[in-house]
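so my prof wants the structure for this chain in the tokens format not the other one, which i didnt know existed until like an hour ago. anyway here's the sequence
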Amino acid sequence: MTAHGRSRGALGPGLERFARRVTEWTGSSLAFAGATGFVVLWAITGPLFHFSDTWQLVINTFTSIVTFLMVVLIQRSQNEIVAAIDGASNRLINVEDLTEEEVRTLREYYRKLVEIARREESLTRSHSIEEAAARARDKRRRSQALNATASRSGA
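here's what i got, hopefully its the right format
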């Protein structure tokens, strides 16, 4: 089973390992150097091939294939990040498919999050209104308990 409750097929574990390794490798300096080297080599060979249509087609095809594969790997990485972060919100996935009313509701939701985060003096800490409200309540309780203790010991 995956983090989203879907079962994997026969290729699942092997494909997962392969995708993870490719994702790690493509984010490496070696991969960047290899891609840069390929582009430089392609540019240098331009005069040898008289800048022909086939010469241009090579880079166009290569970059199209790499772009397609990278988009899939990036989406996979994003899914892992959302699944791995405790309290992470997936409410913005497919936001482009929302109606205007749903976008207004979402905007109000995030406006409330900002209000709560500003009261806590941290704009990056809260992941949900529920979590932020619970943190704010806990913080108030601790502050009140600390003040009560201080006033008792000072009296």
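also thought this was worth mentioning. Residues 1-8 have pLDDT under 50 and may be disordered.
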